[in-house]
Design goal:
CATH class of the largest domain: Alpha Beta
Pfam families: LRR_8
Largest sheet: 9 strands, mixed
Structural class: alpha/beta
CATH topology of the largest domain: Leucine-rich repeat, LRR (right-handed beta-alpha superhelix)
CATH architecture of the largest domain: Alpha-Beta Horseshoe
Strand order of the largest sheet: 1-2-3-5-7-8-9-10-11
Keywords: Disulfide bond, Leucine-rich repeat, Membrane, Repeat, Signal, Transmembrane, Transmembrane helix
Shape: elongated
Distance between the termini: 167 Å
InterPro entries: Ig-like_dom, Ig-like_dom_sf, Ig-like_fold, Ig_sub, Leu-rich_rpt, Leu-rich_rpt_typical-subtyp, LRFN, LRR_dom_sf
Oligomer: single chain
Helix content: 10-25%
Protein name: Ig-like domain-containing protein
Strand content: 15-25%
Length: 507
């Protein structure tokens, strides 16, 4: 059959091939044309270029250099390469690229748009990006990265964005709180809004968050995270709510937490003070000070750079140059030095700006002693306590550890003029009194030892001589006969029942 066809049909001429190539080029997407077509690809309105919802897979080339706003949202862009714009766009301030399928950002993607102030990359498929991708954007003020699949952020990813004010990171997959973005002395000292809500954060650095200034806490949103329930979390949120911070007031019902236990029950964080964990109800504490110290009262406002004035207790204004112990510092805080007793009371800070006014009350309680004296008081109390304990120990030693008395000592030799070691004489009168009164007043208290008392019939023999003891007793009975009338008489059997007793015996 091929033999019957004309020869010219078997070989296409060169002009036919050229026509085919030109036709193929016409079918290519208009985005690859060298000149931006503002009538078919995008809508150009003065310095605004809108290419939204045009099913673009690549960014159009040759964007006019006078463009201020470029809208690429709602397309099919997958990559933002370094050559997406060949020419520099010095006037481009707003770049909108949300609702695409962007998974990759070149490290040089923003080299030609260094003057961006607003960048919207939300609702894409970003998972991570190079730590230096945003380095050229030193003028950026707002960055939207919400509704992506970002799981982690490098700690230096935004370090050069010194003018950044608002950062939106909600609806991602982050599990770590990016504290380096808001802590003191961070390069992002102008940041006033950080949204990390709807992520996977379970633990918050509560102590660090509590120490942040109010203008940071006012714009710090972390609701709708699987936070661990704790009384510290409740106290933090309750304090923010009392201060009427936007982050706590606007999304109060969205702050939830997970109770401890295997069931992982999710409960409202603001209700931990009732049935769930019985946390103590939060109450704003008063400031405390001591005499003669230097005190600093902070006017912690919800907005930056506000003009601040102070009123002392009794509605006395603080006026520069007056002979007052209180003065307003350059940052708006109030310094009181030295603190006096009559400085107690309520201090009022009035903060004003062009768009917002705020009043802050601080109740000050001054202790009636210095900080040094309080230490002396503690030392005195400590010394007193030690003295009391030492006294108790000495009394116990005296009662239970004193040496054994003579009546329990072993038998020793008798010296001249000494009483027997088996007895103890207690005399209540001097030895030189009238002998006639000795029988009545001078008495002997004896503790009888059963071993040496046999044969005495219960009578005490202080000298160890039974006969002499009987004679002495008869003489004493004769001398005191008239005085002993009506009194108890001595009997031989007087103390038979007491021979083995420790009870003192009066003779």
């Amino acid at each position: 059959m091929l033999d019957t066809l004309p020869q010219w049909r078997l070989h296409c001429p060169s002009w036919t091939l050229l026509l085919f190539v030109v036709t193929l080029l016409l079918w290519l997407p208009l985005a690859h044309t060298t000149t931006l077509n503002c009538h078919k690809i995008c809508i150009c309105a003065s310095n605004i270029v809108s290419c939204s919802k045009m099913n673009l897979t690549e960014v159009p080339l040759n964007i006019p250099p006078y463009t201020v706003v470029l809208d690429l949202s709602y397309n099919d862009l997958k990559r933002l390469k370094s050559d997406w714009t060949i020419d520099r766009l010095p006037n481009l301030h707003n770049l909108l690229a949300s609702h695409n399928e962007i998974t990759y950002l070149s490290s040089e993607a923003f080299l030609n748009v260094k003057h961006l102030r607003y960048l919207d990359l939300s609702s894409n498929d970003l998972q991570q990006f190079n730590d230096n991708v945003f380095d050229p954007l030193v003028n950026l003020e707002v960055l939207l990265l919400y509704n992506n699949r970002i799981s982690q952020i490098d700690r230096v990813a935004f370090i050069t964005m010194v003018n950044l004010q608002k950062l939106y990171l909600s609806k991602n997959q982050m599990s770590r709180f990016p504290l380096e973005l808001v802590r003191e002395k961070s390069p992002l000292d102008k940041l006033s809004l950080l949204d990390i809500s709807s992520n996977r954060i379970a633990v918050l650095p509560i102590d660090e968050l509590r120490a942040l200034p109010a203008y940071i806490k006012n714009g710090l949103y972390f609701h709708s995270n699987p936070l661990h329930c704790s009384c510290e979390l409740y106290t933090l949120l309750a304090h923010w709510f009392i201060r009427r911070l936007n982050s706590a007031v606007d999304f109060k019902d969205d702050y939830t937490c997970v109770l401890p236990g295997p069931q992982k029950t999710q409960v409202p964080a603001f209700e931990l003070s009732s049935d769930y964990m019985n946390c103590s109800t939060f109450k704003e504490e008063d400031e405390e000070a001591f005499l003669e110290q230097t005190l600093l009262l902070k006017c912690d406002t919800k907005h930056r750079n506000m003009f601040k004035t102070w009123m002392l207790p009794g509605n006395v204004p603080v006026i520069a140059g007056n002979n007052q112990t209180a003065k307003v510092l350059h940052d708006g805080n109030l310094q009181v030095s030295p603190v006096k007793t009559d400085d107690s009371g309520t201090y009022t800070c009035f903060a004003t700006s062009e768009t917002f006014n705020e009043t802050i009350y601080i109740v000050l309680k001054v202790h009636n002693f210095t900080m040094h004296r309080s230490g002396d008081t503690f030392n005195t109390a400590y010394t007193t306590l030690v003295g009391c304990l030492a006294s108790v120990v000495l009394v116990l030693v005296y009662l239970y550890l004193t040496p054994c008395r003579c009546f329990c000592c072993p038998n020793k030799g008798k010296g001249r003029g000494e009483d027997s070691i088996h007895s103890s004489m207690l005399s209540v009168t001097p030895t030189h009194e009238d002998p006639a009164m000795k029988a009545e007043i001078n008495r002997h208290v004896a503790f009888i030892d059963s071993k040496n008392s046999q044969g005495q019939n219960g009578k005490l023999n202080p000298n160890g001589d039974e006969e002499e003891d009987e004679e002495e007793e008869e003489e004493q009975d004769a001398e005191a006969g008239s005085l002993m009338k009506g009194k108890r008489k001595k009997s031989v059997a007087e103390s038979i029942s007491s021979v083995f007793s420790d009870t003192p015996m009066v003779v």
